[in-house]
Known about the structure:
Layout: E1 2-3, E2 7-8, E3 15-16, E4 20-22, H1 27-36, E5 41-44, E6 59-62, E7 69-73, E8 78-82, H2 87-96, E9 99-100, H3 112-117, E10 134-140, E11 146-150, H4 155-161, E12 170-177, E13 179-180, E14 183-192, H5 193-198, H6 200-205, E15 209-214, E16 220-229, H7 241-254, H8 259-271, E17 276-281, E18 294-302, H9 306-320, E19 328-333, E20 348-356, H10 362-374, E21 378-379, H11 389-395, H12 399-409, H13 418-424
Parallel strand pairs: 4-6, 5-6
Antiparallel strand pairs: 1-4, 2-3, 7-8, 8-12, 9-13, 10-11, 10-12, 14-16, 14-17, 15-16, 15-19, 18-20, 18-21, 19-20
Helix pairs in contact: 9-10
Amino acid sequence: MTNAMRWTNWSGFVAGSPQQILTPDSLDGVVEAVKTAPGPLRVVGAGHSFTPLARTDGTMLSLEKFEGLVSHDEAAAVARVRAGTRLGSLMQLLQEVGQGLPNMGDIDKQAIGGALGTATHGSGRVLGAYHTQLQATQFVDGRGGLRELTLEMDRDLIHATGVALGSFGVLTEVTLKNIPTYRLHRRKWVLPIKEMLAQFEPMMGAHRSAEFYYVPFSGHAQFIASDLSDTPVSPRPPEEDEAGLATLRKLRTALRRAPWLRGLIIRSVMARLPAEDYVQDWLNVYASDRRTRFNEMEYHLPFEEGPRALAEIIELTEKRFPEVYFPMEVRSVAADEFWLSPFYRRPTCSIAIHHDAANDPLPFMRAAEPIFRRYGGRPHWGKMHSLKATDFETLYPRWRDAMDVRRDIDPQGRFVSPYMADLFGLK
């Protein structure tokens, strides 16, 4: 137990002073914390959420000691893991037993429990977010009771609690449906953004996984395609992302009074970026090193609305926010049946915008959010947004049903911090 500790999220934008941070190393320890620790009780992982999901002036509960593989079924490609297992470790554990995650995002620092609870995702029109792999869950409810759910026997409850925002109990173990280990052929190339937007649907659908980045003022997209491969592995090129960000930041700062020159240089560099083409085992493809800290907003839109929304976001950024230099990330996600999933019954285009953590992100994010909302966007639960319960009732057809389940699991509000109460409309 650590007392009177100052806590911040990864970017430093969200901070708090919990009474204590507990790191139980047993299921009994989690139960005891839920029953007796000063509330509100919030589970904290790697701190990669940009919203105050984990913040509390009560007790933070870290599951960093709840790591590792519990069991696996090679024939069924199923694995049961502890919820505090970081994605980077999980990749290695699954590879060792001949399994692979069907898809991933580009950061591997999060705990699997946090990634599930916030509907974290990769990209691919036929690929779902992490929570779509759930076969079973184990969690401690608000009374300190242990609950076990299986997709076979408790499908509705799995769908209600699979995206839980840390408010439907303390998730301790999950069973994931994976696939046999595999290789990916990864290609990356640059094309004009106008061409990318015009060919958005066929390009995003032509590959198992496809995404692209747009660098402000560049006029070009960097497209990334990944497809299954059975050819021998080849070297993965060195990552240049951090060096690229440093260059973009210098150009932003040095040419603040000459945006036309900044754009000219960026367009010239982007147009000459070499293509990438390699084959690697899945766990050596998805994740990238992210050291430059930022704040992020991501909205999930109906797939067909993606190009129009992105065009407006680009125009907004380049006309009003020249201090922004981080690339915008565009991905697709398959529809699913999870009640609080942003992808609930809707094929999705996800657009993420970023701002250097050294700058105030709020003016940019507040200006961009109405564009996302105008196109029917649902926000990523772990990324910046200003929506409240009344908004979610409109965006999520089963919102009230999910709230009923939450009250049953946590009738005394042990997991309800002021931020969560505001989110759920409980004030």
